[in-house]
Design brief:
- Helices cover 73% and strands 0% of the residues.
- With 94 residues, it is an all-alpha fold.
- The chain is rod-shaped, with a radius of gyration of 22 Å.
């Protein structure tokens, strides 16, 4: 029974990490687009702001997205066994 709970917890953690990875990636892309737009307005201050966004937000977000992806990959769990249908015999597979 402990193994079953562990598998369920692992699956939940894997899903949560994947959702976090997707959200972080969305934030990173948003910052990157804003930085790109600021850089191409050709205003001196906008270029500085764009660089600050990239170095202070987009690059660290990218690092965190990669780290979460590595952790999520560690929690690949077995798929749940299929529920037996009425009238079908169960076979032992090893």
């Amino acid at each position: 029974m402990v193994a079953k709970k562990s598998t369920v917890d692992g699956e939940l953690l894997r899903r949560e990490l994947e959702e976090l990875r997707r959200r972080l990636e969305g934030c990173r892309l948003c910052v990157s687009i804003a930085a790109y737009a600021l850089r191409h307005q050709n205003a001196e201050l906008d270029t500085d702001i764009a660089m600050a966004l990239m170095r202070g937000a987009a690059d660290p977000l990218h690092d965190e997205v990669e780290r979460v992806a590595r952790w999520a990959a560690r929690f690949k769990v077995r798929s749940r066994p299929k529920v037996r249908q009425e009238g079908k015999k169960r076979t032992n597979r090893r």
